[in-house]
Amino acid sequence: MSTPVMIEADGLSKQFGPFLAVRDVSFSIPKGQVVAFLGPNGAGKTTTMRLLTGFVAPTRGSARIAGIDVQVDRIAAAENLGYLPENGPLYPDMTPTALLRFFGEARGLSGSRLKSRIDAVVSQCSLDSVAHKPIAKLSKGYRQRVSMAQALLHDPDVLIMDEPTSGLDPNQIRGVRQLIRDLGRSKTVLVSTHILQEVEPVADRVLFIHDGKIVFDGKPAELAEKSGNLEQAFYSLTAQPV
Predict the structure, then answer these.
(1) Which CATH class is domain 1-80+158-169+190-242?
(2) What is the mean pLDDT of residues 94-119?
(3) From 68's CA, which of 55, 159, 183, 239 has a CA 20 to 30 Å away?
(4) Could you tell me where in the chain the CATH 3.40.50.300 domains are found?
């Protein structure tokens, strides 16, 4: 049996006025793969992720999550998807437990199922010591873990994470990397970054976007071999506009 495709972009383009932010982007990610979405700031990573999640509508093309077109049935696609935007959706006056209960009920979870999922993601994201503290009092690292916990709450098969280690210290980054590796054993993960050190520790594959267009699709080692190392490859791929 062939491995099912869990994330698919087909000719995705997004135009804001005269500016073409994403240009005919196509790729597919099979079940169980961790993919690093790499590129410089402003390359189109966040816009592409918003197109994949249905947060914005494409000018052209389509996106599918677990085979479901996100523009045709966004609710059904969202049932299979956990999305962590760069600035996660947090309410600072709530505690992590209260926030997770709120999001869980919004997703239709209740009773023992909701309690067991909250307990699971609190443990998975190492939130036990802060579960009942106001989110406003938490460090950025802990707030990022709370955001990740809400993305995992309904146990989705697909995770899309936008710059999950942005602004974190080295210890916090290590913890997030380990969590992504662990999640990759059972889920399909697309994680965006512009930090080269994030790629090799976590990813099976690299999608490199520049100027709104995919300019490389392959293994991290293949990207490094193109120019001798990842840093030089990054420079070579972004030296000229597409």
Answers:
(1) alpha beta
(2) 96
(3) 183
(4) 1-80+158-169+190-242
